[in-house]
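Consider the tokenized backbone below.
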């Protein structure tokens, strides 16, 4: 189906008269995102579920849609006013309590990495992890634990391993690469993906 066919079916079958081929193309290119109603209609036209269109969910809204839940259902379950929940979903800033966070994770089936991401704490976690691998990792145990509540031994292992990996990579690159430019590039790449490395290290703990 071309964008013109999709747009036509969304207008005729789902009562969305403003949907144009250009809008459908913008969704395909990810330059704009469909609303809840648009996503539901788009999935209907394409004979699939909304979750299949989203791929791996990253945002709170995407996790909710993947589960087939309305905003009202989520807000009621976790004990928030609908407008308050929608504002958090739209801004990507989570302001729920620990109890509400736990209820959200249970309802949406969120893993700990998912919880950190959808509650807007991933950037802060990345900053802390960069500090841990470039300086003394022990000083970052408590701050990281506040964002990613893991068992102390698990967290100690992860931070120590990341520190060793980063420092070892820098030394190896300088030794075999023959210059600081290679080391800097390797170091930047490691730090750019520090959160990914962190969760992989947590999952691979002995």
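A designed sequence for it:
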């Amino acid at each position: 189906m071309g964008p013109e066919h999709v747009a036509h079916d969304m207008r005729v079958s789902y009562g969305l008269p403003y949907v144009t081929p250009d809008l459908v193309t913008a969704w395909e290119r990810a330059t704009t995102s469909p609303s809840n109603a648009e996503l539901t209609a788009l999935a209907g036209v394409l004979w699939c579920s909304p979750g299949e269109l989203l791929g791996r969910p990253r945002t709170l809204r995407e996790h909710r849609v993947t589960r087939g839940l309305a905003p009202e259902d989520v807000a009621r379950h976790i004990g928030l006013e609908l407008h308050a929940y929608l504002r958090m979903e739209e801004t990507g800033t989570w302001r729920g309590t620990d109890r509400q966070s736990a209820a959200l994770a249970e309802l949406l089936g969120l893993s700990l990495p998912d919880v950190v991401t959808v509650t807007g704490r991933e950037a802060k976690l990345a900053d802390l992890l960069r500090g841990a691998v470039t300086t003394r990792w022990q000083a970052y145990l408590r701050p990281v634990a506040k964002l990613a509540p893991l068992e102390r031994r698990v967290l100690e292992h992860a931070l120590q391993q990341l520190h060793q990996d980063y420092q070892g990579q820098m030394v190896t690159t300088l030794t075999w690469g023959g210059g600081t430019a290679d080391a800097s590039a390797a170091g930047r790449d490691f730090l750019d993906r520090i959160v990914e490395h962190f969760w992989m290290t947590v999952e691979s703990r002995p």
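The two ends are 49 Å apart (CA to CA).
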